[in-house]
Known about the structure:
Layout: H1 2-23, H2 25-53, E1 57-67, E2 70-78, H3 80-103, H4 110-126, H5 134-151, H6 163-174
Antiparallel strand pairs: 1-2
Amino acid sequence: MEISILFLPLIASIISGFFGKYIGDRNSEILTSVFVSISAILSIFVLYQVIVNQYEENIVIATWINSGSLDVNWSMLIDPLSAVMLVVVTSVSSLVHIYSIGYMSHDPHKPRFMAYLSLFTFAMLAGAEPSADHFQRWAPIIIAELTPTAHFDGRVPCAASSPGASSLTSAVRSR
């Protein structure tokens, strides 16, 4: 179940990103929103288990480095703090997904944008555990955070092309 919390947003991102043209805008929106919402519901269930049954677990997802006595794993630690953060990240992300359905209704590339949002959710969940490779885990989060912003690159007029910016630029150049 905990692995599903982590990988459902990634699966939604892959399906919407690679097959969004084939499944359509509306299905991409619904798929990504439902998968992230299921992650949120599962996160609430995990938080309940942590609170009621004092459930704690370190789930190893993959081994990253294994050399002699050094063993660095990609794992998911379930404790009270991480369970609360799972609920916060997945529930806020599911609300952002649902809100984006209406907010992005004019966008011609909705499946790509929804894939970027789901990828960002996965990156936030995957890089959550502090460990020796903490800074390397933040790199995918930063990249995934910038992809929705880059989604608009070229379609939103640049601030430097506004009349106020051009007069400011010409005033600076004349001095």
